[in-house]
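Chain A, query sequence.
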Amino acid sequence: MSDLSLKHVTGAGISPVAGKTNVYTSSVDEFKDMLKKSIDSVSAGANEANDLADGLISGKHANIHETMIAMEKANISFRLITKTQSMLIRAYQEVMKIPL
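Chain A, predicted structure.
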């Protein structure tokens, strides 16, 4: 996901007014950074849950409560990011339907 590029969607670099810089470029970069941080956070939560589950199975620790909480947090985060993805795709499809 690190090569995610939104330039083709937003027309970044194309100035709406001749001679002016694109005012949308910083917003696109901020949005892209927010998405990347969210995806990284979900991935880190899933990795933590997997590590705790592996530790529980191998006998390194016996804290089933902590493991279950981490697994549920990872599950909720994954469902949230999946729902967000669906909403973004629908929004993109609606924007693409707008006649120019």
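The chain has one domain: 7-97. Residues 1-16 have pLDDT under 50 and may be disordered.
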